[in-house]
Write a structure and sequence with these properties.
Layout (H helix, E strand, L loop, with lengths): L3 E5 L7 H9 L5 E4 H5 L3 H4 L10 E4 L3 E4 L1 H11 L7 H27 L2 H20 L19
Parallel strand pairs: 1-2
Antiparallel strand pairs: 1-3, 3-4
Helix pairs in contact: 1-4, 5-6
Length: 153
């Protein structure tokens, strides 16, 4: 089994889904803040890591996997949760990519706005979410077995 260290900041954002997957799959991992793992300020670390952004997953203290969706796909493979049918796998990937699109408008409000600033930003932000979620309704409703909520094999 691999040694896994998920490196991020102290917030709920792009590292949340990988953590949920690791917990669900019962994968042992450490969740570390960037300043603890790198023992340096983010401004100094940023130029040294892939794509200059977090999260990264450190595997076996040797490999750094960048980008949250790549981390998710890696974890799904090592947990034995990857769909075997390439069509089903592609549809699952499409759902993952669509979820990432919802993250962009929500993140600044959910993770950084507080107090009056949050109150001012939350309604416009959350009012647009149903529009994003509405696009999920049709693509897989014709599958006959409720693809999105059904069992993926």
């Amino acid at each position: 089994m691999h040694s896994l260290k998920l490196i991020y900041f102290k917030m709920r954002a792009l590292a949340e889904a990988p953590q949920m997957l690791m917990k669900f799959a019962d994968l042992n991992y450490e969740y570390l803040m960037s300043w603890d793992y790198f023992d340096d300020d983010w401004e100094m670390v940023k130029p040294t890591i892939p794509f200059q952004q977090l999260p990264i997953l450190v595997v076996d203290d040797e490999h750094q996997i960048a980008q949250s969706t790549s981390i998710m796909r890696f974890l799904q493979r090592i947990a034995g949760m990857e769909p075997q049918d390439p069509v089903v796998a592609a549809k699952a990937d499409a759902i993952l990519e669509s979820a990432q699109e919802l993250f962009r408008p929500l993140n600044p409000t959910v993770n950084f706005a507080v107090g009056e600033d949050f109150e001012k930003k939350k309604n416009p932000c959350f009012l647009n979410c149903p529009l994003g979620l509405q696009t999920w309704k049709e693509p897989y409703s014709m599958e006959g077995n409720n693809f999105l909520w059904g069992r993926i094999q």
